[in-house]
Amino acid sequence: MEETAATYDPSRYERPSVTVDVVIFTLHHRELHLLLVQRRRWPFDGYWALPGGFIEMHESLEESARRELEEETGVRDVYLEQLYTFGDPGRDPRTRVISVTYFALVRSDEQQLRVSDETTDVRWFPIHAVPRELAFDHEQVLNYALSRLRSKLEYTTLAFQLLPEVFSILELKDIYEQILGEKLDKGNFYRKIREAGVLEETNLVREGRGRPTRLWRFRHDRSDKQFVFRWREDRGDKSDDPEQEGA
Amino acid sequence: MEETAATYDPSRYERPSVTVDVVIFTLHHRELHLLLVQRRRWPFDGYWALPGGFIEMHESLEESARRELEEETGVRDVYLEQLYTFGDPGRDPRTRVISVTYFALVRSDEQQLRVSDETTDVRWFPIHAVPRELAFDHEQVLNYALSRLRSKLEYTTLAFQLLPEVFSILELKDIYEQILGEKLDKGNFYRKIREAGVLEETNLVREGRGRPTRLWRFRHDRSDKQFVFRWREDRGDKSDDPEQEGA
DNA sequence: TTAGATAGTGTTGAAAGTACACTAAAGGAG
DNA sequence: CTCCTTTAGTGTACTTTCAACACTATCTAA
After folding, report:
1. Is B87's CB within 8 Å of A60's CB?
2. Which of A104, A157, B109, B118 has its CA at a distance of 20 to 30 angstroms from the CA of residue B47?
3. A-chain residues near B239 (CB < 8 A)
4. Do residue B13 and residue A237 have CB atoms under 8 angstroms apart?
């Protein structure tokens, strides 16, 4: 018999659950930090985990990610992009769970954190001091997010998501250095960034110990197509498949 | 009350369905082709669609993609990587459906096609002659897959997935030209590809009208980390977000 | 006034990319 | 056999980009 709207019965199919999980980074005291929540319930009670949870039927995946992030941590107004979908059977002992993971950046760690009733703690961890064992396969998710962050830094304007409205070029260089983990040449950085035409000069300066620095603004006008400026060539992004990343 | 394995009840949550859909390309007569199935049932009956279907509880997402592809089209032994996950409410009129999409390449269009009981036809379409309207949001998925294909061609060894075991360097160049849609310089292509060290010479030649051509093999030994050779710089991949691609 | 600190520019040699002319090796027509 | 056509493959010179690093600029503090 032919199927129609009237005869279609979705409950025929056995269904997995769908969650979103968010890997969110910020920069604090010139160091990359990651936001984790400590789980209150089985499974993995007591373990630190990426914020996330089950999607609701009426919202898009991205909306789910924003809602879960805010519910579980209090953090909002973040830059968000989809990362990868993990769905191996057995990655969650409760039931079959498909996790759509998101990658997020936020400008500061100064938003008020809060715990939900699912968790006992929420905390920013310096990236070199995240707990050894995370819940579920979240270490794998984190590693993939890090490799994506480093890779995209080099050919997109992602780094601007970590800066305040106005900033100096050397602050921007500092972000690149922190995330890539290597020193960059000041002169070459200046030239590259200015030739890219992604910055707009303000008439502001910031005074300090030495020569005052000019402040710049990111040109959002040209970023409707999130345009690319590739400020150098070598991409670390050998593998596109997070299943192959180190665990 | 604290949740445990005994008290955990997954049926509390209202659940979406999860499908996989596969965008699969091949090269036929020097032109890129896409495999589509014609739907038999509501919704979108009569429309052409990407092969795919509901996942089963015991299999990984990639296994689902391979199974659905073979069940719906008969095609197997393909190169596969995850593309993006689409999950807007309303993208499927039946119920909330999360679609994990995969991107696939296959060496030839000579595998025997077959139709399943869900479909009335299966066919390879030249990429410039795919039907105007596809089922669901499959045009968006296709556009994203195309942009990903073009982009990854330039910094990975993806193109080798479209070639037979042995091939000539000019055949490889032809693939690049077909997919990127522009002419490439013969001499520069030779140099780039040979310096990359991704090819292994065979002692085979192929005779033809002019000077016989040497045949090469892809060096799989170096590709455990799917290594990169970036054969030129400019990436077309402005947007990483398929929601922004032209529909 | 000058030392120290931070900001920002210029220069030069090396490397890579591009265009295009050239040589090589086959078949086929006369 | 000769030479024209066809396809394969190499060489080279010009241009652009990259990378290292020396240099100049402008402030504070002593």
Report:
1. yes
2. B109
3. 225-226
4. no
DSSP β-ladder status, B97-105 and B17-28: parallel
Residue B8 has pLDDT above 60, yes or no: no
Assess contact for B179 and B150: CB atoms under 8 A.
yes
Predicted pLDDT at A108: 83
Q: Using the CB atom, is residue A211 less than 7 Å from strand C?
A: yes
How many angstroms is C1' of C17 away from CA of B22?
A: 37
A60 interfacial to chain B (CB closer than 8 Å):
yes
Give the minimum alpha-carbon distance from A34 to chain B in angstroms, rounded to a whole number.
22
Q: Are A182 and A194 in contact (CB under 8 A)?
A: no
Smallest Cβ–Cβ distance between B10 and the set A55, A89, A95 belongs to: A95
pLDDT digits (tens, 9 = 90+) for B65-88: 999 999 999 999 999 999 999 999
> Burial letters for A147-179: b for 16+ Cβ neighbours within 10 Å, e otherwise?
bbbbbbbbbbbbbbbbbeeebbbebbbbbbebb
What is the pLDDT, as a whole number, of residue B208? 83
Structure confidence at residue A4 (pLDDT): 56
B residues 105..134 contacting A (CB < 8 A) = none
* Global ipTM: 0.87
User: At B113, is the pLDDT very low, low, confident or very high (cuts 50, 70, 90)?
Assistant: very high
Domains of chain A and CATH, by start:
10-142 (3.90.79.10), 153-247 (1.10.10.10)
Q: Which residue has the higher pLDDT, A69 or A6?
A: A69
Q: What is the pLDDT of residue B6?
A: 53
Residue-level pLDDT at B239 = 46
Residue B83 contacts residue B65 (beta carbons within 8 Å): no
Chain A residues close to B82, C-beta within 8 Å: 84-85, 241
Cα B131 from Cα A236, distance rounded (Å): 38
The model's pLDDT over B117-145, given as tens digits with 9 standing for 90+, comes to: 999 999 999 999 999 999 999 999 999 99
At residue B214, the pLDDT reads 96
- For tokens 């060894």, what's the residue? B157
Can you give B19-85 as a three-state secondary structure string?
A: EEEEEEEEEECCEEEEEEEEECCCCCCCCEECCEEECCCCCCHHHHHHHHHHHHHCCCCCEEEEEEE
Tokens of A42: 């089985």
Beta carbons within 8 Å of B211's beta carbon, 6+ residues apart: none
